Structures are given as structure tokens and as C-alpha cells.
């Protein structure tokens, strides 16, 4: 194999597929990146058997072939080369010579035939979604996935596709994030996608409205983004019926400025995180909500102007869970909906109904 391509483009491509390469694997071949000629393009592939990323770049193909090279070393070498053409030549013994300007490296590679093939996902029945919308939907849900593997299904995000809409839902037992959007779909579908996969997708997606194509099989999902394809296994099992968890009514509703509440919560959390459960207490009265936190090293008192509809309420929360939601809501004002001091609180924007965040309270003592 012999190819010539641009250093900057090659470095960017390696950086993309490297996201799927695990340094902890016991299989040496999985620590590498597959480089393979594909027509007039060079295909790069990285995988850890859970997620696979393919990226295609334009290259001058002098002779066809394929090789697997160490992801870490290849990435370091190409990144340090000058912004000029890079020539990669592979001999019959899987030795790769990399030339650029005044530099020449020789790397011992591994045969491409030993590299695991990515699962085949038939590319019919595509679901199309603007890149910027998908990026936003991931950002507004992924933080609420479970980190604990005791309930593996909760370490992913449920994606529900219906004829007129798409829902993405994440929950970890303490809070729930639901993001909805209107899109046209030919078919209904739902699947639970691992948070790790969506994290990598989010890093690849661009802030533009060109479409991502999404294809499903029973066990895998394929995201096709222009010259990058991500194939991931799906999580198996039944996702919790989240609609049953979200309260339909409230006894108290607070309207509050998002930035004011965020600022107060950030200051209150400075002491809250010194305590055992990150506790902050809300006291809702008429036109004022006070936020307090007591820790061994001291206490904090914050007050925020509000509009209250309904009853007064005293309720406690883990400040981190509240901050996570406030940081990703892009509306100027939010509603906080309460039923009782031991019932879930709903946080939602005042100007649209696309986002719902539920957080369980912490029981107040005394």
C-alpha cells in the first residue's frame, strides 16, 4: 500500500477514530487503527468492540492495501509533523514507512485481516436529524444517565422515534431528563443507546443543520455524518416507563429567572458540597425563594425573586442535580413545579415545552 494525503486532514481523522480505541483492552489489535484504501479515499477505523468509528479522507492512492498501526503512536507522529503532504508506504511484512518533509518514521504494523470487522447495519429506512438538533438533545439529557452499572439499561439514553416527533430520555434513579423535538419519521422505533456512544457522537457532531442519518438493527445503531460513521451496540432490556414517573399536576408553581437561580445555587453549593448529601433547602414564600445550606464549616443564605402560584413549600435537594439542569436550559426563565416536600420537582422552560427535568427531593430532618 502506498498513499499520499494532507497532514492536517490525516491528523484530524486519526483524532476522530481514536475516540473508539480503548487503551485498556487485552487484545493488542484493538489498540490500533485500521488504515485501508477505499476507491480514491483512505478509510480509518477504530473500535473497542462496543463502538466503532469509521472516517474517510481524500488521498492520492498510488497502490491499494491495508494495515493496522498503533493508534497512540501514529496519532502522536502525525500530529507533530509539519502541515505538508504525508506519504505512507507499507511493505509485504507490514512495515509502514511514514515520510513528511524532512522526517521519516518506520512503524511495525499488524495485518489488516486480524482487525475485527464492524457489525453490518443495513442502510435502509433512515431517520434524519439536523446535526445541531441532535447535539443539543444529547447535551440536555446525557448528564442524567446512571454511572453505576448495577442497572445497565440506565447507563444509556432512550431514543423514541415517532411519526411526528423524537424523544430522548435519561434517568439515574434520582433525576430524569426528557428532551422532545418535532421531526418527520416514516417509521416508529425506540432503542437505548449507551451514554459513551452519545458522548463520542456529540464530540464529532458540528454546529450546523446538515442532517445525520440514523439506522437501526435489533442490536446496533449506525450514525452517518458526512465522512464519519459511528456504529454502536444498543443496550438490551426494558427501559423504565418514564411517563408514569412525571407528575401531571402540581400544587405550587414558581416562575424564576434562570441566571439568578443558577448564580444563587452555585454559591449555595460551595458549602452544600462540604456536607454529606450536597443538601440545599428551598423555602418558597409569596415573591421570594430563600436557598440555604448548613455545613460543619458554616452556612449560606441566598434569596431570589419569584412569582408564586399556589401554596408555600419547604423542600430540600442535592444541589449538583439542580445545577446540572439549570446549566443546560437555554431559556431566560424557568418554572419549578412542586406537589409536596417529598414529591419530585419538575423544572421546565417557560417559553416552550420541549424540555422537562425531574428531580427527587432530599428528605429534610426536623
Automatic annotation (TrEMBL):
UniProtKB keywords: Cytoplasm, DNA replication, DNA-binding, DNA-directed DNA polymerase, Nucleotidyltransferase, Transferase
Segments forming domain DNA polymerase III beta sliding clamp central: 129-239
Keyword Amino-acid biosynthesis: no
One Pfam family this sequence matches: DNA_pol3_beta_3
Free-text function comment from the UniProt entry: Confers DNA tethering and processivity to DNA polymerases and other proteins. Acts as a clamp, forming a ring around DNA (a reaction catalyzed by the clamp-loading complex) which diffuses in an ATP-independent manner freely and bidirectionally along dsDNA. Initially characterized for its ability to contact the catalytic subunit of DNA polymerase III (Pol III), a complex, multichain enzyme responsible for most of the replicative synthesis in bacteria; Pol III exhibits 3'-5' exonuclease proofreading activity.
PANTHER family: BETA SLIDING CLAMP, DNA POLYMERASE III SUBUNIT BETA
Primary residence: cytoplasm
GO biological process: DNA strand elongation involved in DNA replication
Record text on subunit structure and interactions: Forms a ring-shaped head-to-tail homodimer around DNA.
Taxonomic placement: Bacteria, Bacillati, Bacillota, Clostridia, Eubacteriales
Entry's localization field: Cytoplasm
Protein's name according to its UniProt entry: Beta sliding clamp
GO molecular function: 3'-5' exonuclease activity; DNA binding; DNA-directed DNA polymerase activity
Domain DNA polymerase III beta sliding clamp N-terminal span(s) in chain numbering: 1-119
Family the UniProt entry places it in: Belongs to the beta sliding clamp family.
Domain DNA polymerase III beta sliding clamp C-terminal: 244-363
GO cellular component: cytoplasm; DNA polymerase III complex
Organism expressing this protein natively: Crassaminicella thermophila
Amino acid at each position: 500500500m502506498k498513499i499520499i494525503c494532507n497532514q492536517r486532514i490525516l491528523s484530524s481523522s486519526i483524532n476522530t477514530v481514536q475516540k473508539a480505541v480503548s487503551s485498556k483492552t487485552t487484545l493488542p489489535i484493538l489498540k490500533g487503527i485500521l488504515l485501508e484504501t477505499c476507491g480514491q479515499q483512505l478509510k480509518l477505523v477504530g473500535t473497542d468492540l462496543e463502538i466503532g468509528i469509521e472516517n474517510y479522507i481524500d488521498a492520492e492512492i498510488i497502490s491499494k492495501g491495508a494495515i493496522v498501526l498503533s493508534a497512540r503512536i501514529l496519532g502522536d507522529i502525525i500530529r507533530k509533523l509539519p502541515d505538508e503532504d504525508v506519504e505512507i508506504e507499507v511493505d509485504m511484512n507490514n512495515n509502514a514507512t511514514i515520510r513528511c518533509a524532512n522526517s521519516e518514521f518506520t512503524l511495525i504494523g499488524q495485518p489488516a485481516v486480524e482487525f475485527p470487522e464492524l457489525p453490518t447495519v443495513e442502510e435502509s429506512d433512515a431517520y434524519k436529524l439536523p446535526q445541531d438538533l441532535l447535539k443539543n438533545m444529547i447535551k440536555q439529557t446525557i448528564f442524567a444517565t446512571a454511572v453505576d452499572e448495577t442497572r445497565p439499561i440506565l447507563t444509556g439514553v432512550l431514543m423514541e422515534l415517532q411519526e411526528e416527533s423524537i424523544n430522548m430520555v435519561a434517568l439515574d434513579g434520582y433525576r430524569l431528563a426528557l428532551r422532545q423535538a418535532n421531526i418527520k419519521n416514516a417509521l416508529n422505533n425506540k432503542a437505548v443507546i449507551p451514554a459513551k456512544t452519545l458522548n463520542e457522537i456529540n464530540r464529532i457532531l458540528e454546529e450546523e443543520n446538515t442532517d445525520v442519518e440514523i439506522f437501526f438493527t435489533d442490536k446496533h445503531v449506525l450514525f452517518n455524518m458526512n465522512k464519519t460513521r459511528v456504529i454502536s451496540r444498543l443496550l438490551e432490556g426494558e427501559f423504565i416507563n418514564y411517563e408514569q414517573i412525571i407528575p401531571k399536576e402540581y400544587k405550587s408553581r414558581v416562575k424564576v429567572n434562570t441566571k439568578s437561580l443558577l448564580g444563587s445555587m452555585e454559591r449555595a453549593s460551595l458549602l452544600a458540597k462540604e456536607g454529606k448529601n450536597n443538601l440545599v433547602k428551598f423555602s418558597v414564600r409569596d415573591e421570594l425563594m430563600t436557598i440555604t445550606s448548613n455545613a460543619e464549616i458554616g452556612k449560606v443564605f441566598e434569596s431570589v425573586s419569584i412569582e408564586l402560584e399556589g401554596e408555600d413549600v419547604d423542600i430540600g435537594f442535592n444541589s449538583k442535580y439542580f445545577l446540572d439542569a439549570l446549566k443546560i436550559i437555554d431559556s431566560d426563565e424557568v418554572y419549578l413545579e412542586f406537589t409536596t416536600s417529598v414529591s419530585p420537582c419538575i423544572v421546565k422552560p417557560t417559553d416552550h415545552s420541549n424540555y422537562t427535568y425531574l428531580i427527587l427531593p432530599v428528605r429534610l430532618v426536623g
